[in-house]
Amino acid sequence: MKTLALVALLLAGPAAAQDNPLKNSPTWDDLRDSVLGLSADVPQDAGVLDLDAPVRAHEAAIVPIRLTQPADAPPVQAVTLVIDENPAPVAAEYSFGPAMAPLDFEFRVRVDSYSDVRAIADTGNGTRVMAGRFVKASGGCSAPAGKDMAEVEATMGQMRWKSAVQDGRTVGTLMIRHPNFSGLQRDQVTLLNIPAHFIDRLEVRQGEDLLFSLQAGISISEDPVFRFAYAPNGQPIHVHAEDTDGNTWDHSFDAVNG
């Protein structure tokens, strides 16, 4: 498991300089209609939702993304994350429970080539808003895995949970061991392609109440980490994960210290 120090380095705080606005392209025009079924573009409004991402990623396979809202913004119920130029552009579909409002949610993705990374949010009643950044990164979906296959087998499905109070809000960090193979990587020993194998379903609850759920594709990073602010209700944290090979994992953690 990566250390908390490394997690903090990768995920802590907004990206440095946000001078990388979206660069809408013919790719997005096609995706918007054919993949998302949107006949018109979605308005951007940082007063409802913002997305932070680095201008140039240090590692294309672990690009940090942070979704944030002002305190008075309407709650976001769902977010579709799209990485325009990735082989599978729809990277993730999130649903959020009331305890996540206002949203402050971080995770890591693979970016395969210079691309817009955008979040299309649903705030209810059919209202959508978009946020995003243009990220300079390449090769993230085919980057070599960070561990050998024996370690993958030995540690897959292990989880860690930490929580702390930061800036007046409770912030939880969930770390999951899983290679999240994209299907575009090669085994560094055999040089054969590694079949796609990734977590495609994830649900995190406190007691019976939903914090967030995820339906994912190949673009969520290896050993995924989710860091998020939430309103605690004092109940244990329950995590349910499923992957594309039919594996399932269920873990429960003390709400305070894991």
TrEMBL record:
Q: Which residues does UniProt call coiled coil?
A: none
Keyword terms, alphabetized: Signal
Cross-referenced Pfam families: SoxY, SoxZ
SUPFAM superfamilies under this entry?
E set domains
Could you tell me which residue ranges the Ig-like SoxY domain spans? 42-141
Tell me which positions the record assigns to the signal sequence.
1-17
Q: How is this protein named in the record? A: Sulfur oxidation protein SoxY
* All copies of domain Sulphur oxidation protein SoxZ, residue ranges: 164-253
Q: Which organism is it from?
A: Paracoccus haematequi
Task: Specify the taxonomic lineage.
Answer: Bacteria, Pseudomonadati, Pseudomonadota, Alphaproteobacteria, Rhodobacterales
Name the InterPro entries for this protein: Fuse-rel_SoxYZ, Ig-like_fold, Ig_E-set, SoxY, SoxY_sf, SoxZ_dom
